[in-house]
Amino acid sequence: MKRILSDVYRKCWVEAEDIKKFPVILWKIGYRKGEDSNGFMFLLEEFFEIREKRYLMLRNVSDVLRKTKVKVIWMDAFMCASSDSASDVNGEPVRKSRRKEYSYALLLAYQGKKYNGMQVQKDFPTVEGELFKAMAKCGYISEDDILSPVRFAFQRAARTDRSVSAARQMCSMRLAPENHEYFLKTASDKLNAQLPEEIRVMGVRRATRSFKAHKNCDKRTYSYTLPSYAFARADELTNSAFRISETSVTELNDLLALYKGTHNFFNYTSGRTYEDRSNMRYIHDFKCGPTQLVEDKVRGGMVEFISLYVTGQSFMLHQIRKMIGMTVATFRGLCGKTELENTFRSERMDVPKAPGLGLVLDKVHYERYDRWYEKTHQKLNNWGDEIEARADEFRKLYIIAEIYRQELATHSMFLWLTTLLRHDIMIPGITRESRERSPLGLASDRAYLANEELKEMKKEKENQIFVESNEERRDHLAELIKKDSNSQSGENSEGSHTDTIVVMGTSPRRVLDSGES
């Protein structure tokens, strides 16, 4: 079989640039045991590309099948490469006339609050599901293609999780519109008319035939927006009145810089081992953005928010949220820089994961693509001032404003901060003595002492209230005694009895005095 494939390679080498894609048909053919494979040779007629797969048009397919009695595993894929090809009366493949296909790049922005992620799912609302329904209504794809996006070579630059939003998401696809130029001019408006308000198509551009949104993406930038009080020190109050200083921002940037470069992030995801090479990720940049004061209309006052921007080649599941969580824990003094650097080592560590609210896919980068095709195709890294301004406006009004609103209503970051002490951000096997001296141990001790001090203060306050109550009762009883003694003065005689009030402790007692010695 290897010899046969090798012969096919030699016949095709002149015609193709990437010969490795051709055996997609031959791999679907099997032999019966004992069959002679001599003569199992295909003559190349031509090759063509359909929906991301390249196929060979072979001239003597029917003769070979009859002579060698080859067992065909997938007859449709072999005889008819797709619905766009057919066979003549002699069984030889013949190409049908079809509408020309073009590759397109689509810039998408969406608020993910209502959706179970980006990727289409059968029984759940997703961003792709809404997009494909709109495309079907506009006649760009069929109804059957909605749950099978591979049919029109759909691909996304980055997959976002449930409730995560995107200001600039790139999608690639191959479509065959009736009028290519008219499609480029009207596709955005037609799709937006069918899409919900929280999903917007910012623009559509023609791309190269081999363009794939995920494969051609150089890097991705995410932002994470959170209240600045998350970075309050141990000796500072964590409340809405907190304002982060320039010194703290500088220190925070120095801490974020520890993530730059190539590291093993197996502690920042789940279900992987340290030896898995896919854990190696490269971080281009990680820094703070400007702060923003936001009015809290529920409780009153102003709350300061800050955004962190991280740019990397690619990211794993939960990686960014755990990077944020570890940064907050380190900055607040629950662990040191040493513990942060140790998270890149082979020991499994309990890295806290920040809430999902605040995470946004901010931008996908295509700098290399633009350099290669700047003379023949429009740029994809920058869509021009008008489209970029609309994307920024959508990000501000629909994404960031919703993050502010939800955070002020739910205080998700504040509630998460209260759980940080539950995380054991230490390497297993650390001694008890060194743990007690660690920042986490000291923070736990401080929390314990503060709780004990609070109990003592509460006890003292209760005692003070008790004493004050007793003093008031004594004063009241003394006044009653004085009135009683005045009313009984001059009435005492020998043999007469006098009631005298004796105050013992907190309750009065009447003693019968006979006047006898």
UniProtKB/TrEMBL annotation:
GO molecular function: RNA binding; tRNA pseudouridine(38-40) synthase activity
Active site: 161
Keyword tRNA processing: yes
EC numbers on record: 5.4.99.12
Comp. bias (Low complexity): 486-495
Keywords for the protein's UniProt record, in alphabetical order: Coiled coil, Isomerase, mRNA processing, Nucleus, tRNA processing
GO cellular component: nucleus
Annotated segments matching region Disordered: 479-517
Gene3D superfamilies: Pseudouridine synthase I, catalytic domain, C-terminal subdomain, Pseudouridine synthase I, catalytic domain, N-terminal subdomain
Entry binding sites for substrate: 222
Keyword Disulfide bond (UniProt): no
Domain Pseudouridine synthase I TruA alpha/beta: 257-367
UniProt subcellular location: Nucleus
Domain of life: Eukaryota
Listed InterPro entries: PsdUridine_synth_cat_dom_sf (IPR020103), PsdUridine_synth_TruA (IPR001406), PsdUridine_synth_TruA_a/b_dom (IPR020097), PsdUridine_synth_TruA_C (IPR020095), PUS1/PUS2-like (IPR041708), TruA/RsuA/RluB/E/F_N (IPR020094)
GO BP, sorted A to Z: mRNA processing; mRNA pseudouridine synthesis; tRNA pseudouridine synthesis
Pfam families recorded: PseudoU_synth_1
Recorded coiled-coil stretches: 444-471
Catalysis performed (reactions): a uridine in mRNA = a pseudouridine in mRNA; a uridine in tRNA = a pseudouridine in tRNA; uridine(38/39/40) in tRNA = pseudouridine(38/39/40) in tRNA
Quaternary structure, from the entry: Monomer. Forms a complex with RARG and the SRA1 RNA in the nucleus.
Free-text function comment from the UniProt entry: Pseudouridylate synthase that catalyzes pseudouridylation of tRNAs and mRNAs. Acts on positions 27/28 in the anticodon stem and also positions 34 and 36 in the anticodon of an intron containing tRNA. Also catalyzes pseudouridylation of mRNAs: mediates pseudouridylation of mRNAs with the consensus sequence 5'-UGUAG-3'. Acts as a regulator of pre-mRNA splicing by mediating pseudouridylation of pre-mRNAs at locations associated with alternatively spliced regions. Pseudouridylation of pre-mRNAs near splice sites directly regulates mRNA splicing and mRNA 3'-end processing.
Family (UniProt): Belongs to the tRNA pseudouridine synthase TruA family.
Protein name in UniProt: Pseudouridylate synthase 1 homolog
Source species taxonomy: Eukaryota, Metazoa, Ecdysozoa, Nematoda, Chromadorea
